[in-house]
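WARN retry 2 of 3 for item q-0093 after timeout on previous attempt; input resubmitted unchanged.
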Amino acid sequence: MDNSTSTYPDRNSSDGQTLATMPENSLEVQAVTISLSLLICGVGIAGNVMVVLVVIRSKHMMTATNCYLVSLAMADLTVLLAAGLPNISEVVASWIYGYAGCVCITYLQYLGINVSSCSITAFTTERYIAICHSIKAQFICTVSRAKKIIACVWIFTSLYCIMWFFLVDTNETIYSNGVVVRCGYRVSRNLYMPIYFLDFTLFYVVPLVVASVLYGLIARILFRDPLPSNLSEQRLSVHQGRRHSSVKVSCRANSAASSRKQVTKMLAVVVVLFALLWMPYRTLVVVNSFMDPPYLNTWFLLFCRMCIYTNSAVNPIIYNAMSQKFRAAFKRLCVCKRRSDQSRASKSTVSVYYSVIKDSSSESSMKKHGIQTADKNIIRVFYP
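OK item q-0093 returned
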């Protein structure tokens, strides 16, 4: 992401040209950037891949909410692969991916960022409908509808981000010791301010406002008002008149309520971390839009980048810590992986033992019927 100046406003001056006085990154900055990027991207890529696998491969995990989490995981993977990994190479050298890489990587960065915001808004809305309008949710919050909404989200953001194919270019700066190539703006930076504020509004402010309102309504239903299931529990208890039936219904209601609260808390934490980890960069863009010269402290820029990478990497950790279903699914996936490796290893080293046993009873029977048994032994094969 930081390789694209359209995303990180630390690579360009106000006239769109790369800063000729830009100092080279110190060894300390390079070491911190490379180590943190490798750690965060490694954990994030592995975790998001596991999220996708456990939902796709497990039928009981294929729910409407989890479909949105798969979309979020794919968006986070796009950010980590298109932003985090190129940052490792650029911190120690100039832009090495050429014009095509500049255009495509910038496009993928914005695509991942925007899809993640839309996915958060989608699963927040789905949770609101599922909890506050449980009857309608049976027809609205379905897996097939979730897949259609996700497809629309990716198509919309793909079309919206096409403009970056025409807004970025590679810029060259001549230093005394050579030429440095950077991926930067095609025209004056001032012309990008409407785009920045449009992105800031559509993919940060609006999702957070919607999430704040909807989670407030959800909290009122879950933690203050009695759940609708309690009413059905009381009615069923009265009609049946059996104590054990009432206990069973009560356990089911409590289990359902606990599961709802657990999922809602987990998704709320995802939204809160999204707001906090994106705040430094979003604030920097707004502030630098009114400052001349812009604020370009190296360590603060590095902090902004690491926050964005962390936001794309932390979600699988949240699922594992706060969701019993995801935790169990992750364990099953790891166990199946180990068993599969062990099975392949055992198949490649399996030994076959042969034992030649002369069965006297079979021999006597064969002699009785006139069958020659000389030098004819019954061979039995034993597999360990």
